Amino acid sequence: MKKLLLVVVALSLILMFNACGKKAAKVAPVQEPTVEKVEEPIAMVEKPVLSEEELFQQKSLEELNKDQILKRINFDFDKYTVREDMKSIMQANANWLLKFASVEVLVEGHCDERGTIEYNIALGEKRAEAARNYLVSLGLNPAKVKIISYGKSKPLVQGVDEETYFQNRRAEFVITKK
Amino acid sequence: MKIRQTVLWTCVCLLALHLCGQEEITIRITEGMPMIPVAMPAFQFSETAAQKTDIRDAVYETLWKDLEFSRIFKMVPREHYSYIPRFNANAIHFKDWASIQANILISGQLEVTADDRVIFSFKVYEVASERFIFGRNFGGKKDLARLIAHRAADEMLKHFGEKPLFTSKIVYISESGNDRDVYIMDYDGYRPTRITFSNALDMLPSWSADNEKILYTSYRNLSPELFMFDIYSGKTQLLSSGGSNYAADWSPVADRIVYTSSKHGNAEIYLKDMKTGQEKRLTFNPAIDTSPCWSPNGREIAFTSQRNGTPQIYIMDVEGSNIRRITMEGSYHDSPAWSPDGMRLAFVSRIENRFDIYVYNLKSNEMSKLTENAGRNENPSWSPDGRHLVFSSNRSGRYQLYLVDYDGRNVRQITSSGENKMPKWQKFPK
Q1: Residue A62, Cβ neighbours under 10 Å: how many?
Q2: Would you state the pLDDT for residue A170?
Q3: Mutating which of B206, B249, B334 best tests the A interface, going by the most A Cβ atoms within 10 A?
Q4: CA distance linking residue A73 with residue B235, whole number of Å
Q5: Measured by CB atoms within 10 angstroms of the end CB, which terminus of chain B is less buried, N or C?
């Protein structure tokens, strides 16, 4: 009985072998030009996920600022206190700045166009100062945060509607040193 | 509006006269002297000048516009000249000119030499007495034709007891592309000259008392600092140290300036001696204090403060004491400008998001509005004689400079290319 089983297995193996051999023999005559497809090996490699630290090291100051690592905040009309809904942004900015303690930042204060030139310089400065004080209250080294006011001379967007004015009443955080 | 009112009042008066029969009518002129009617027939030209119509027109039109602008003279309309025989400089028939209500007659003669020099002579006559009053000759290169006319107009002012105005200049900020630089131009908007080339934001220029220096703020070193430019030597000097520094105003009577600085953290007003460089802080308030401006006698300073919640106009003594609030209504006032006679303050008020220029009379405590709901009107500055102001407005789209008389009349646009703002008119030299 065992012998019979061995024979059957041996036979089927031989058959399989034969079938494979036949197939190979069928393909062989088709003579295709040997064009080798070159595949980018890197496509096979998974992109490495850079850590925040690595990104920080890799990017230039301009790139960091362009990417708006630090988010701008907006203010109420004629006011210069940090709004409740802007505090989470400020916290995120502060967290990032605390993580990269070498960074120096310039806080720019801006106003919408509904003010005089002279008063808006002072108002923009108050906004920048409020943002700076808030960062300091969250633990930032005051020596690392400088302020400047542009008043209404550098609007972010042009327009005459409430949304435009809101966007222009802002403090921006510019990284000046890594 | 004024005309309609006048017509209405005339009707009311006539009706009253009709009803009451012998009622007496009193006409009272509340402000200013009646203007002197002046006739100025076309100039006589030499043969070469006749071909140079641009020079001819430049001198004649500039002189005409100056005199018309003065509020001292009133030009007899040119159409009236056609009622009388043609003007002949060699045989003047004064009775003809009297018949068209001219009190003063100007006779001009223009010559252009072969080397393109302009020679302009004019004679001024009093019509009633048929008398020659005075005359002057001016000569200069042809591109100074407008200046020649301004000089002639100034001679007219001087002869009638006024100080020269038409050769006065306006300093301002002009924007083209990303640059905002300081420029100087004639009071009527012609002959602009660029004086800063900083490639950065320049703003809020003003004159020294002798009109030889310009104070202005520039971001050229990345923070708003105060600079002084000497027009004649071309030298620039940095005046401030740290913080934001702006809105400088030179005392009309002494070598000292007031300006806003946040060098100690908050926007405060400082007094700086320009000879010794010594400084004194004038305001001590956690609120915003800004836009200082001297009274003409140099004893007081008008300024803007937000110490009571909103920006309002205040006056203090030059020592920083005796602070009193001027504006009581409204929630936003700034850019005070003290009139040369010391009687009035012009400033900008924001009412329901409209920016208009108001004039506050310090004697009568009355306020009048100079601009009427046409765009945003900002940065008023008085002419040295106090009869006019220059200001910026975006009523025609971009910001341009405009002139207006002290009573809101004769609004006139003087710039049109690019964007122009923050004008400051020269003061009379001390």
Answers
A1: 9
A2: 97
A3: B334
A4: 41
A5: N
Residue numbers in A near B349 (CB within 8 A):
none
B17: pLDDT confidence band, cut at 50, 70 and 90?
very low
Of A78, A121, A123, the CB nearest to B246: A121
Residue-wise pLDDT for B297-317, tens only, equals 999 999 999 999 999 999 999
Domains and CATH numbers, chain A: 60-177 (3.30.1330.60)
Architecture category of domain B36-159 in CATH:
3-Layer(aba) Sandwich (3.40)
pLDDT of amino acid A151: 96
Entry field: residues in chain B: 430
Judged by CB atoms closer than 8 Å, whether chains meet at A118 and B304 is answered as yes
Beta strands in B94-235 (DSSP E): 104-112, 117-126, 131-141, 169-176, 179-186, 193-194, 202-207, 213-218, 225-230
Q: What is the pLDDT of residue B158?
A: 95
Q: Where are the domains of chain B?
A: 36-159, 169-425
Candidate from B201, B219, B288 with C-beta closest to A123: B288
Burial class of residue B44 (count of CB atoms within 10 Å of its CB; 0-12, 13-18, 19+): middle
Task: Report the alpha-carbon distance of residue A162 to residue A171 in Å, rounded.
Answer: 17
CA–CA separation, B241 and B244 (whole Å) = 9
Report the C-alpha gap between A113 and B376 in whole angstroms: 10
ipTM above 0.90, yes or no: no
Per-residue pLDDT tens digits for B139-163: 999 899 999 999 999 999 999 999 9
User: Which residues of chain A are under the pLDDT cut of 50?
Assistant: 21-25
Question: Under a CB-based contact definition with an 8 Å cutoff, are residues A106 and A149 in contact?
Answer: no
Quick one: tokens of B90? 């060699």
Say if residue B356's pLDDT is above 70.
yes
Nearest residue in A to B203, CA atom: A117
- The answer to whether the beta carbons of residues B274 and B257 sit under 8 Å apart is yes
- What chain A residue is nearest to B336 in terms of C-alpha separation? A118
Going by DSSP bridges, is the β-strand pair B36-39/B104-112 parallel, antiparallel, or unpaired?
Answer: parallel
CA pair distance A170, B288, nearest whole angstrom:
18
- The topology under which CATH files domain B169-425 is Neuraminidase (2.120.10)
Which residues make Cβ contacts (< 8 Å) with residue A76, sequence separation at least 6?
Answer: A83, A169
- Specify the 3-state DSSP secondary structure of B354: strand
SS3 content of chain A, % helix, strand, coil (to 5): 50, 15, 35
Q: Give pLDDT, residue B33.
A: 75
3-state secondary structure of B45: strand
For chain A, percent of residues with pLDDT exceeding 70: 75
